[in-house]
Design a protein that fits this description.
By secondary structure, this protein is an alpha+beta fold. It has one domain (19-94). Helices cover 39% and strands 23% of the residues. It has helices at residues 15-22, 29-37, 39-47, 55-65, and strands at residues 27-28, 71-80, 85-94. A hairpin with a 4-residue loop joins strand 2 and strand 3.
Length: 96
């Protein structure tokens, strides 16, 4: 897997800073996934802004609600101007 943290002239920054820096909107990682899966899905989600939650979305919401006392949900927002991409990553931080 390619290490994307060492791209010259780029640093992974917040969504908003990267969008404002270039003036061009960054492409959501999920949009690329939709495009690879089905061009019609990409059009509906990115152009018409019609998105439907599937079982994975509901499972993720349930997991957020069921966090243990020693766990904390963390959302990381990453963006790269050089790649023209942005995305969010949900993670669970466990304290030991």
């Amino acid at each position: 897997m390619k290490d994307l943290s060492n791209i010259p002239g780029d640093s992974f920054s917040s969504f908003h800073a990267a969008d404002k820096a270039t003036g061009d909107p960054l492409i959501r990682v999920m949009a690329l996934h939709a495009l690879a899966y089905c061009e019609r899905l990409f059009y509906l989600e990115e152009v018409e802004e019609i998105r439907r939650a599937d079982a994975n979305v509901y499972d993720g919401r349930r997991l957020h609600e069921e966090l243990q006392k020693d766990e904390e949900a963390v959302t990381l927002e990453l963006a790269s101007e050089a790649l023209g991409l942005k995305g969010k990553l949900d993670a669970v931080r466990r304290r030991s």
